[in-house]
UniProtKB/TrEMBL annotation:
<keyword id="KW-0808">Transferase</keyword>
<dbReference type="InterPro" id="IPR004163">
    <property type="entry name" value="CoA_transf_BS"/>
</dbReference>
<dbReference type="GO" id="GO:0008410">
    <property type="term" value="F:CoA-transferase activity"/>
</dbReference>
<dbReference type="Pfam" id="PF01144">
    <property type="entry name" value="CoA_trans"/>
</dbReference>
<dbReference type="InterPro" id="IPR037171">
    <property type="entry name" value="NagB/RpiA_transferase-like"/>
</dbReference>
<comment type="similarity">
    <text>Belongs to the 3-oxoacid CoA-transferase subunit A family.</text>
</comment>
<dbReference type="InterPro" id="IPR012792">
    <property type="entry name" value="3-oxoacid_CoA-transf_A"/>
</dbReference>
<dbReference type="InterPro" id="IPR004165">
    <property type="entry name" value="CoA_trans_fam_I"/>
</dbReference>
<protein>
    <submittedName>
        <fullName>CoA transferase subunit A</fullName>
    </submittedName>
</protein>
């Protein structure tokens, strides 16, 4: 599917999951298209905020002041996001990283929630139910879902089966299951059968659209440029 067509349902106030971790395994073209469309008041669900070097990944959405709320585990990597939060322009809701992933997994699996001891005795437990199981206390964490998810894969076929490469299999697979409408941006679109069953990281039943992203070579170049700009590579 064309990326513009895949974006047609996106609206102001939408709740959107963005796969990736500090830009690694992130749907870069989809994020750029969100910025281009100018949709605003977005609730973004992302494991971590953008890479600290800036001008990359979801930082562009903050630059265009499109984010109303961020649900995350760590936002300190994006200065513009912190500045907008400090100015009262945006909200941030935090969850421990493992808890956040399990909340999304619960949404994708049709579960009513998950029990975890992580966060007991801290600010994390405020407003949450506690249950005691076999003498041990747990917090009840409710499922975390979204209207849309934009994930990044290595290859995808027309049935929506997605193959990941390396650490791009971070938050992408779980997010694909936890949204009403999942768009997979891939480096290469292949014929059905090219991705062998054991290499399918996300089955097509969870994916509503497969779109062409950067080629693998373009993706490598984008990451290399970013890491050089951040002075992490020479």
């Amino acid at each position: 599917m064309d990326l513009d067509a895949a974006m047609e349902k996106i609206h102001d106030g939408a709740t959107i999951m963005l796969g990736g971790f500090l830009g690694v395994g992130s749907p870069l073209r989809a994020i750029d298209k969100l910025a281009e469309r100018g949709v605003k008041d977005l609730t973004i669900i992302s494991i971590v905020n953008a890479h600290p070097a800036g001008n990359f990944d979801m930082e562009i959405l903050y630059r265009h002041k499109q984010v109303k709320k961020l649900i995350t585990s760590h936002s300190g990597t994006c200065q513009i996001a912190l500045d907008q939060w400090a100015a009262g322009e945006t909200e941030i809701e935090y969850f421990p990283m493992g808890t956040m992933v399990e909340k999304m997994r619960a949404a994708g699996s049709g579960l009513g929630g998950v029990l975890t001891a992580t966060g007991l005795g801290t600010l994390v437990e405020e407003g949450k139910r506690k249950l005691t199981i076999e003498g041990k206390e747990y917090l009840l964490e409710l499922p975390l879902k979204a209207e849309f998810a934009f994930i990044k894969g290595y290859r995808g076929d027309r049935f929506g089966n997605i193959q990941y490469r390396g650490v791009s299999a971070n938050s992408n697979p779980v997010m694909a299951t936890a949204a009403d409408y999942t768009v997979a941006e891939v480096n290469e679109i292949v014929e059905v059968g090219v991705i062998t069953p054991e290499c399918v990281g996300t089955p097509g039943i969870f994916v509503q659209a497969v779109v062409q992203g950067n080629t693998f070579e373009e993706h490598q170049r984008a990451y290399t440029d970013q890491w050089v700009r951040a002075k992490l590579l020479k």
